[in-house]
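Data deposition worksheet. Section B asks for the primary sequence of the deposited chain exactly as it was used as input, without tags or linkers unless they were present during the calculation. Section C holds the resulting structure in C-alpha cell form. Section D is free text for depositor observations; keep each observation to a single sentence. Incomplete worksheets are returned to the depositor.
Section A, Depositor: J.P.
Section B:
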Amino acid sequence: MSRLIGYSRPWWPGDDLSIDIDNLAEAGATAILTDSGVGEGPLDDESPLHSLEAGDILLVSSAARLGSSLPRVVQTIAELGRRGIGFRSLIEPALSTDAGPADPAEVFATLEGLRRRLAGLRTRQGMLQAEAAGRRPGRPSVMTPERVAVAEELRRQHRSIAHIARVIGVSPSAVQRALSVPV
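Section C:
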C-alpha cells in the first residue's frame, strides 16, 4: 500500500511552514516531513526524503519547495522516479508523476511558470540576505549627501526643481524624491 507523504522546506530563513503543512495535511498526507532549508535541497545526504520507500507518493504544495532552480527540481523529481517514488504537486498538477501522462503543452507551461516563480523566490531571498547584512538592495541613489545639501540650499533660495536638477546634474524626479517635494 502506498503512503502519501507530505514534504515542506523553507524558502528563506524564518519562513513559516505552518500554512504549507496545513495544506499538505488537508490534501491527505499521512505524514509530513520537513527540512531545514540548509544545503542544496532534498537530495542532500541529511534529507528526510531518504526515508521514503518505493511505492510512496511525495506530496508538496509546490514543486518550488524541492530546490532553488528548475534543473534542481527536475533532477529531484527524476531521482524520486528512479527510486520508485511517485510525485504530486498541489499547485503544479501537470508535474505529478502518479496521475498518468499529462499534456506536454501543459507540462511545458507549468515548467515555465515554475521557473519564473523560482526566480522571484531567489530574488526575494537575496534581498532578505542583503537587508540582514545591512545593505540596501537595488540601485544606489544618484542623490549623494553632498547633492542633497546643495539641493536643500537652492530650495531655500526658492529655486525651481527643474533649476536645481540642472545645477546638480540629476533628473527633476530625483530631486523631488530627495527633498520629498509633492508633485
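Section D:
The CA atoms of residues 165 and 173 lie 8 Å apart.
Helices lie at 18-26, 70-82, 104-132, 145-156, 161-168, 172-179.
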